[in-house]
Amino acid sequence: MMKPKQQYFRAIAIGLGALAALASAIAAGCVEAPSGLAPGPTGGGNVSDAGVEAGPVIINGRDLFDSMQADLMSACGLCHDVAGLADTPFLAGPDRYQSFVSWPGIVSTQPENSLLLTYAMSGKGHSGTNLDSASLKDTLLPKVKAWLAQEAQNFTQPPPAAGPYIDPFAPIMGFNAIYLGALGAEFEGMAVTFQAELLAETTLELTNIELHPTSKTGLKIVHPLWVVHPLGKDPNPDPVDSFSNVDTIYAAGESGELGPGTLVLVNWSRDAKLSLAFETIEKYEPASPDAGDGGPTGGCKDVASFDANARQPLQVCLNCHGGGNGQAVAAVDMTALSSDSAKACGQIKNRVNPNDPPASQLFITTNPDGNAAHPFKFGGQSGAFNTFRNSVSIWIAAEK
């Protein structure tokens, strides 16, 4: 007998295979459209002239953002635009709304948990202009709170039968790192990374989709399912269930492609969100205590080049990856950078691209001229970043 989540994924596979026939019937007026995977946002319903409940009134968060964008840029743009004074470019153009809503921690199903209200306020450690300052508390702050409340209402969730899933998120148009720690403590530091690009109004392409386990723990993935959450509508899964045949083990310390590594979602819509569900996701214990620490399968080819060209520049990463931030260490462990070059090299190698060194995640995430969500970008200093990239790239190229 199949478990509920197995039945759910099987039902999706069967339903997706019948979409073409259903589409024809719906066009002919013979049947109703399928209801989708989960109900849309609740509350705020309105009644039509015929007295029939017409569903909730959906206000696009983009509209509220547009009404406060000028104030936001005036108060926050100097630091939080691309190459700003802070390493958090969540107001990057050209689509500042997309950048803002997609930055981790900005929007939440619980508005009071937003970084805007837990950090950018007096006494919370924020060094810039706080939203509750005298000049903003009666002007910008009420607009921010109204926007956060509306964004919270516009979240939808897959049903529990979907199996473990990552909550809906707005993808960054560029590099994305989606951490799996929300699925359980055993997944802390693991991540799915990808590049997102809008090809057309209804088409979103994900490329370079990779799964990153940690140095100590591997991962088994069965049938990941990407789900689009259109604004004000039911969640809508990948129409062709592109990753249905995935059943992959990722050894500790060994990153790799997730499924085919590329996905084209033709059911995208403006300001939609994504979620990722799994039929199975479970940790995979390494074969030996030393697995993933720069051993025979995960080690570097040229540790000498790593020592000569990368070890010293990478010291700037140690504040977080050297032990100061648990999630950062789990993602890329640099704790051995000063004591064991081979071990550190084996870890960092999982986030570089020897075939195209400038395209390495190590650089995409730290580039001050990029919009990747990473807390360190050389303080907006492009010269310092270029020096770092040029030196470390010599080692990366040697790993080819």
UniProtKB/TrEMBL annotation:
Q: Where is the signal peptide?
A: 1-27
Q: Which GO terms describe its molecular function?
A: electron transfer activity; heme binding; metal ion binding
Say yes or no: keyword Signal present: yes
Cytochrome c domain mapped to chain residues: 56-152
The record's keywords, sorted A to Z, are: Heme, Iron, Metal-binding, Signal
Protein name per UniProt: Cytochrome c domain-containing protein
The record lists the lineage as: Bacteria, Pseudomonadati, Myxococcota, Polyangia, Polyangiales
